[in-house]
Amino acid sequence: MQREVLRGKIHRATVTEANLEYEGSLTVDVELMEAAGLAPYERIDVYDVTNGSRFSTYLIEGTRHSGVICVNGAAAHLARAGDRVIITGYGLATEAEIKGHRPRVVLVDERNRIRQVLHESTGALVP
Fold first, then answer.
1. Which residues form the catalytic set?
2. Which of 77, 65, 66 has its CA nearest to residue 24?
3. What is the count of structural domains for the chain?
4. Which residues contact 121 (CB under 8 A, 6 or more apart)?
5. What range defines the domain where residue 70 resides?
6. Is 124 among the domain residues?
């Protein structure tokens, strides 16, 4: 049996813009994507810490070192610039793989610059 497990996340990033007119997706600074082990066009879930909304979409690479987190298309109704979000990617793992699995957790500052990359969740709240 396989289970769906967290592979990587960008924790409490700040939305920099919302673009209702774009066809859809989430644009993320490619440096953040790479640090979390996330790929372009990968399906991801987004949890808006500010307003409680949740949605699924896919990733588009944003300019490296830009700090961009742009919510595009219909999801722009669910998140606004300044909102704090958690961006998550999941994968399938066997029972044997789960035992040693540790997701990548990317902690960022208020400008979406990487502060730290962990290889497991600490369970601690990050301000």
1. 25, 58
2. 77
3. 1
4. 6, 103, 105
5. 2-118
6. no
